[in-house]
Each structure stands twice: as C-alpha cells, then as structure tokens.
Amino acid sequence: MTAQTAVPAPAAHEVVDDLVRGRVAGQSLEAPFYTSEEVYRRDLDVIFARNWIFVAAAAEIPEPGDYVTVDVGEYSVIVVRDDDEQVRAFHNVCRHRGSRLLPERQGAVGNIVCPYHRWTYGVDGRLRFAESQPATFDTTCFSLRPVHVRDLAGLVFICLAEQAPQDFDAVAEVLEPHLRPYELGKAKVAATYDLAEAGNWKLVMENNRECYHCDGHPELITAYFPLFAYEAEDITPRLKPLYDRYVKAAEALEKIRAAHGLPLTDHRELDTRVVGFQLSHLPLDGEGKSFAPNGGAVCRTLMGQVQDAAFGDLSLHLQPNSWFHLLSDHAVVFSVLPTSTGTSTLRTTWLVHPAAVEGVDYDLDALTAVWRATNDQDRALVAGTQAGCSDPGYVPGPYSMVEDDVEAFVNWYVTRLREAIA
C-alpha cells in the first residue's frame, strides 16, 4: 500500500485571510468574524491599533492635570490636559521597568508618579525625577511615549499607530463648522456610564447603524423619527403618515439651520475613505427640541451658541467605534471598545451647558432616561445576535434596502483588513 501524505491544516491567520477575501457584499459576515479569537486579535491589530478611535469628550478633562485612561486590547493610554490646556496622550507605561502608571479610569494629577519606584513625569510627558541615577543619566531620553491625539471641537480621538491616517484633517475641516455652535469643549459632563455588552464589538456597531429595528425603542421614537437611512421609495404604507410629518419637520429645521448660518449639506463617506464618517442634521418629532416625550426639552439651558430650542438632532457617525447626538439642550456621545471575542463595552456620556445646574435646569433621570432605556434594549438585541452567530445553524443573511449603513460599516471594516493583507 502507498502511504498517504497528510495535508497540513491551514494556519489560523490563513483562515482569516480567506474569510476576508471571500466576504460577500450585501450579506452579514460569516460567523468567525464574531466568534473567532484569531479574528478578534486581527481586529485589535488592524482596526483599533491603526485607526483613529474616539475615546473621550474633552469635557471629561476640563482642567490642567485632569486625565482619563483608556484600555484598547492590551494597550492602556493616558489622555491628559497639560499645563497649557492642550490635550495630550501617552502610553500608560513607566519608562523605567514598565509599571502601569495610572490605574484609575479618571482623576487629576499635578505630576504623573509611578507607584513602583516614584519616577515622576510632568503632564507634558517629560521625565522630571528619577532617583539614584548616574551622573550620565539623561532624563530627556525617557519621556513618556506619546500617542497621536486630536481634539475635534471637543471630541477626543487617539491613534496608536506610528503613522496615523492622514485624512483626519480633511474630515475635521468638514465636521468642525457643524459642531462649532454646540461648544462641546466648554460643556459639562452631566453623566457617564459603561454598559457591558455580551456581543462582539462589530455587532454593537452594526446594531447602531440601522433603524430597521427602531420599533423596539418605544422611548426613543416618541421624539426620534425611525426613518434613518430611509429614502422616499423605501416608505411603506404603514410609515407614510410618519414620513409626511418628517418631511414637514425637515423643512422647518432647514430654515432654522440657515438662520444660524450653518452649512446645509449633510455628508456620507462611511466606506469611501479611511476616516469614514456620516453627518446628518435630522429633525425631531413633536416639539422638535430634544429626547423628552413628544420631542420636548430635557434641559432649560441651551448648548453653546444654539439659539433655537427646536434645533433637531445633529447625528454623527465615525468609523470604527463611535456615534454622537447633538441637540439644542444637551449632547450624547458614545464609544465602543472590544473586551474579548464575544464582549465589548459601550460608554455613554451626556454633556450639558457648563452653567446648567442639576435639579434646577435639568433632572438627571429625565436627561438620561431615553438612552439608558435604548442602550439596554440594544444590549439584549446584540446579545441575542451574538448567540445566534455562535449557533452552528447560522448562515449569513441579506441586508434590507434600509441597511445601507450596516453594509457601509462592514465594507469599511473588511476593506481595512484587506489592505492589511495586501
């Protein structure tokens, strides 16, 4: 008998490469994209370590020495305001023997002092003190390692790569005039909380990128028109009365935007550039003011330079991990970070005018009620989808006509992975 030569199984990275190359446009991803440890490691390396990711509102670090720490896979990053009131970012690693410098999520420091051997750094990252060093020791060689950071009109992004994607400047130029009236950099944090999601980070993002399921958000759709990404030809008879109301509200909002001297053009470049984004200034139902029932206000003090309470919802999406809702009386900012193959963390932060007083200008429960409920409803949907994608019976299904932004997110994601393979 002739001995048969065993054919070696393909390496794990080759399996992922084949999945990426074989992705079918217009369909949900194959199960391993949500369940494979090798894909998760690829996501951390290609998506989260090489692209601009949203990590905080600048309002979270209002004073010099204020900081937040952000964990991205095995990375930990300090985002701090320096003595010149500029936002900086550094690897949260001591230059001596690697100790974690700041273990807390948020705080304030005069200097950054290593808890191990007391090496001391300024908030500009420079090493200021290291005991028992030889006369030849040069402190300038041991500053904290910097991380790329950008403060876009009060929204803070970092990039862990040596070379950050260059098109951030072009995107910032488009977005900044739309964001300017809200003065997010001067806002006050009213609340923030983290929600543990039992789902892969991509499922959290995909869920956010469509309103096909918005009937499952009764608190939200008393003010939010559940028509995001719908075109006139997508409107069913059931949605026709709602759509007619939306058209009238959109016409009224455009007049208000024009009176403010704002750009009237929305933008959608979700998968046509590295820093993918979408910006839409959407009307709200009812009173058109905010996320209270029937579009009512939730805060008496308007944001920044906004002069009209019926200012709709400036909705902004940025790839790969964030979305934002800016309203006349508050803003809500969201970020998603992966924590394992099948888990992630959704952080939600509510911002108000710095002069707004809790209990006088706003009630905290009323301010946060809609998105706490909506996030929790989405948490259950994401967990159910993660369970389904982990089931041997799962096969990819087709996206509907109103899930274009889900397809755009997935296409952006797969494009980045393909570029990395190339």
TrEMBL record:
Superkingdom, natural source: Bacteria
One Pfam short name: Ring_hydroxyl_A
A GO molecular-function descriptor: iron ion binding
Cofactor(s) required for function per UniProt: Fe cation
Rieske domain sequence ranges: 52-158
PROSITE patterns xref list: RIESKE (PS51296), RING_HYDROXYL_ALPHA (PS00570)
Signal peptide: none
Keywords of this entry: 2Fe-2S, Iron, Iron-sulfur, Metal-binding, NAD, Oxidoreductase
InterPro entries, A to Z: ARHD_Rieske_2Fe_2S, Rieske_2Fe-2S, Rieske_2Fe-2S_sf, Ring_hydroxy_dOase_asu_C_dom, Rng_hydr_dOase-A
Annotated protein name in UniProt: Rieske 2Fe-2S family protein
Source organism of the structure: Kineococcus rhizosphaerae
